[in-house]
Amino acid sequence: MQDVDNAIDPPSDSDMRFSADEAILRELREGDPSAFETLVRFYGPRMLATTRRLLPREQDAQDALQDAFLSAFKKIDQFEARSRLGTWLHRIAVNAALMKLRQQKSRRERPIDDLLPQYDDDGRLASPANWAAVYDRAVEDRDLRRLVRKSIDELPAPYRDVLLLRDIEELPTDETAEILEISNGAVRARLHRARLALKTLLDPHVVEAQS
Amino acid sequence: MNCRDFIDLIIDFCDGSLPQEVKQEFELHAATCHTCDTYLVSYQCTIQLGKAACEGEKCTDLNMPESLVQKIIKARESGSQQA
Question: Is the pLDDT of residue A3 over 50?
Answer without folding.
Answer: no
